[in-house]
Amino acid sequence: MTPTARRQAIEVLTTEHELSVRRACRVVGLARTAWYPPPAHPAMRGAGVIEALIAVVEQRPRWGFWKCYDRLRLDGHAWNHKRVHRVYCALRLNLPRRTRRRVPPRFRHVLVAPTRLNAIWALDFMHDALYGGRRFRTLNVIDEGNREGLAIEVGVSIPASRVVRVLDQLIALYGRPDALRTDNGPELTSQALTEWAAARGITLRYIQPGQPVQNAFIERFNRTYREEVLNAYLF
């Protein structure tokens, strides 16, 4: 008699003949441990916690355990911290995570020299070092209409707020451009710059990652600036 047939016989004995499970297993010759359903796998028991944790970590990859746990509690989950921490460690989320910066898909824009000024401004950063070894950066801005260098902002640190301030000064001097052509640097894709451009009706034209040729006008300006200024002098 197969185990499946023994189970069917126990069902008949317990339902039709009203025998207890213990007596029916003894009659059929099947252990009670084989009759009762086995405990669920730990992964199945924590399926809800796993799904919720993965959703939080995908949105906030830099968060640690307690921030993730507080987020789960705010979302209405009633799991205690011990259960969540067991799943958190089982998923190896307690180990340092290296996350790649995800750049949204970019579309290639045709690089054509505008026939008027203030149509498109191109922006790019450059790096160099002082004589003492300290690094500094320059923010270069040109008008693609005549390839004129509008600004070269120099500083040890040029965050997004400073980029916005430089652009405001240029707009007050030259007028508002229709679009800005930039790469995907963190300062140029920041929320501060995107909100600033949206408030002024300026289009941001990001080049595709790894394709500096799509911003060729500013790259040609950078070469001249590198050879005739940065490489020619000690600062």
Provide a descriptive summary of the structure in words.
The chain has 235 residues and is of the alpha/beta class. It has 3 domains: 33 residues; 49 residues; 111 residues, 2-Layer Sandwich (Nucleotidyltransferase, domain 5). 43% of the residues lie in helices and 15% in strands. The chain has 10 helices and 5 strands. Strands 3-2-1-4-5 form a 5-stranded mixed beta sheet, sandwiched between helices. Strand 1 and strand 2 form a beta hairpin. Helix 5 packs across helix 6. It is elongated. The N and C termini lie far apart (92 Å). The model has no long low-confidence stretch (mean pLDDT 89).
Strand order of the largest sheet: 3-2-1-4-5
Strand coverage percent: 5-15%
> Roughly how much helix do the residues carry, as a percent range?
40-55%
Whole-number tally of structural domains: 3
The count of helical stretches stands at 10
Q: What is the overall silhouette?
A: elongated
In the predicted model, the low-confidence regions spanning at least 5 consecutive residues are none
The major β-sheet equals: 5 strands, mixed
CATH superfamily (homologous) name of the largest domain: Ribonuclease H-like superfamily/Ribonuclease H
Rg from alpha-carbon coordinates: 32 Å
pLDDT averaged residue by residue: 89
The CATH architecture of the largest domain would be 2-Layer Sandwich
Helix-strand topology string: HHHHHHHEEEHEHEH
CATH third-level topology of the largest domain: Nucleotidyltransferase, domain 5
What is the CATH first-level class name of the largest domain? Alpha Beta
Distance from N terminus to C terminus (CA atoms, Å) equals 92 Å
**Structural class by secondary-structure content:** alpha/beta
Number of strands: 5
